[in-house]
Amino acid sequence: MTELKGIQLPDYLVIIAYFLLIIIIGYYFKRYIKQAKDYFAAGNVMPWWLAGTSFFMASFSTLLFVIYSEISYKYGIVGIIITWIGPVCILLGGYFTAHLWRRARVITPLGFMERRYNSAVHQLFVWTGFPLRMFDNALKIFSTAIVITVALKGSGITLIQFMVIVGIIMIAYSFLGGQMTVIITDFVQAVILAIAVIFLFFLTINFITTDYGSLGTFISKLPEGFLNPVREPYGWSYLIFTVFLITLLTYNASWSLVQKYNTVRSEKDARKMVYLIATLMFLAPPIFFFPGIAARLILPNLADAKEVYAAISLKILPVGMMGFILVALLSATMSTLGSEFNTLSGILTRDFYKKKIKPDITEKKELGFGRMATVIIGIVTILLAILLSFFRGLTLMDIMFRFFAAFGPPIMIPLILGLLLKKFNARGVIWGVIAGAATGVILISVNFILVGIYSEQMAVDPTLEFWLRSGWNSAATVLNILATILGMWIGTITKPTPREEENKVVSFFNDLKKPFQLEAAAKDTALSPFKIIGFTLAIFGVVIVLISLLVLLVYHNTQAFWLDLILGFTLFLIGGVMWIKSKKSRK
Question: How many domains does the chain have?
């Protein structure tokens, strides 16, 4: 068993500085939030590269590092292959849907449901989609806390206390600046994440070449099958019928991700977003998960493989840099949840409160209700995350894929098909949601019963283990998708579509034929993001430089000093370039 050390004072200082900067960004952008559109859609003026980076950051959280680093540690490069399905899905979906989401001309991703179908379907999706998204968000907070508390060992901070702290900070910056703050912060966090994982990647390679003589020697000592791109229990059936289908649905119908398309100026910018996201998703996995593969030899006796990313970081990184890698992991979750909190708040405000309770609400009061909804959603998410910490006997992979295989398709498929096809009506959507949800509940319940009955036999029978876990997830995903589509088709053909709904469909699809372009007046008021991004990165760089001096004077660690110093100057340089760019843009 490998004993893990905890982080030290310089690492804590890095984390505290990061949290303070995040709150400062939220406070800074509070002044620009004048209308509900500003709060929920960033005024529709975000540059494509900024919105695309935000999409990328919102598409994963620390949960990604926990699950796929664990897979890489146990099975090898198959962990990278699984995540490479992502860029394929975003290119496919983006080609067919990115411009349509922008042409829908709505502020929230469910805003088109009433235009496309009717108010009953609209409200059905508001209330059925909420539990799915909030459960997923709670899972992200929970997984983040698992990793961070490993590094905070000896600090006295418990898993539950850390979840509360992170949740409150995310509520604060989402509350203050809305979608604009989320997107700006996402870019800052993307820079931090990129620098952190690249440093860890190269330091891992340096550690390997020092200990093993060469990278080739190290690779030759990896367990058999570690370089196989497909390996059970993650075989082709699992990759196609579970990962591909769920990823395709998630990247093209997830509320917080679709919302990013509504923040850019035009559908051309939405297309550029897609290409940028796919590129980032292709480049990231080898850098993200190589340390997990390397840990198989460097840390061969880990007690819990879910801790591998934190463990390899603690093993390789010098004092000060461990705090930075923890900040990077935190940034992944905070980017995702910031987007989720804002999107769910927009749906609760505009798609429920304004539609059903207060249709004549003023812009000021709508903005106030949206901020209050952000706080409520954040608190409920934290409570759900705390509840998850009491579940025993299930892995994070079990929870995530079973839950999404059961409830993802009936929530996401009607959104995509409603955007692409005219033939399905509101009655069909309701039938599809019922059929898909019922199928999901039955399949997941039967699976839990069987796993409970055969748990001891599964421990010694790999074939049974495969079919009751990976095999079952694949079959459940396909059956749920088929049940949802079949329910939509039967519901549509069993009763004629009302004339009012037919007129609505014609109007909706006529709008989808019209290219979207932001009005000139809105363009002139577009806010340049370079100034605050540059300022934030530069200040954070200065903080890291000061911490490097502390490392040298107090800890007398020359190697850590130089690495932290290089890290700080890199951040300061990037921030300075962006600050200068903001000055030129203003001129």
Answer: 3
